[in-house]
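Model it.
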Amino acid sequence: MAGSQTVTRKVTNVGSTAATYTPSFTGMEGFNVLVSPASLTLARGETKSFSVTFTRDTAVANTYVGGQLTWTDGGTHDVRLPMVVRPVALAAPAQVNGTGGPINYDVRFGYSGPFTATARGLITPTITAGTVVDDPTDSTCSLTSPNAQLIPVVIQAGTTYARFALFDADVNPGTDIDLCVFRGTTLVGTSGSGTSAETVNLVNPAADNYTVVVQGWGVVGSSPFKLHTWLLGSANAGNMTVTAPASAVVGATGTINLTFSGLTAATKYLGSVAYGGIAGMPNPTIVSVNTP
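Modeled.
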C-alpha cells in the first residue's frame, strides 16, 4: 500500500442475544489505524460491515507489519482478525502500453518529499530469424530439448531489463513454440503458453552469457520464427518525454505523462520510467509501444 488504504470486512454476532461490539487493535507499529464505525450493534446472528483505514506514519517501506483487530462485546465474545500490511514508497503500474500516442497513468505516493520520473529508452529489438522443427517428445523446454534452436545472447553490465519474445504473427498458423532462457546451465525464465506468443522478462539481469531456447513444442514439420530481444539500459534515447510531479505527498495521486517522437512505423519499442526521490522505490514501469 502507498500512503493510506481502506479495506472493508464483515463481522457477525454469534452470541445468543443482541450485543454492541467495540474495536481495539494491537501491533501495526508505524501506522495510524482508523476503524469505522466506532462500534457495531448487532442482533443475534446479524452481520454488518466495517472499514479499516491504514495510514503510513513511520513504518519502513517494503517491510511487512502485522497486528490484530479485535471486536469485543465486553463480555464473553471476541472476534479477532489478523492484519498484515506492507507499505510502499510508490504504487505504480508494472507496464503501460501504447501505439505511439500520449500515454498517461497515475501513481500513488507513500511518502512526502521530492519525486523524479526518468525515461529509459525507447529501444528497438534485435530480431533473430530462424526455423524450428517439432520436438517429438513434447518435453519441458530445456537446453537439451530435441530439435530446439539455441540462440546465444550476451547481456552487458548496466542492463536494467531484458525481454525475449516470440509472436504468433511470425510462425505458421496453429504452431505452438515455447521459450526458455538459461544463464549458463541455470534456468532463469520460461514461457510456455498454448500458442507461440511467449515472453520472458529479466529485471536487472547479471552480466553474463545467456542462451535462449526456442522449442518446437507443437509444430507440424517445421515453422519459421522471429526472436525479439530487447536489452534496455538506463540511457534516454530521446524519443520518449516524461513529465511528472516534482514532489510527492503521502496518500496523494500523481499523473505521469509520456509523449513520443521520431518513432518508425510497424516497430515494437521498449522502454521504462524509473522513479527516484526516496529509498525503496518500485521497479521501473515498463513502456511498450507498438507502432502501426
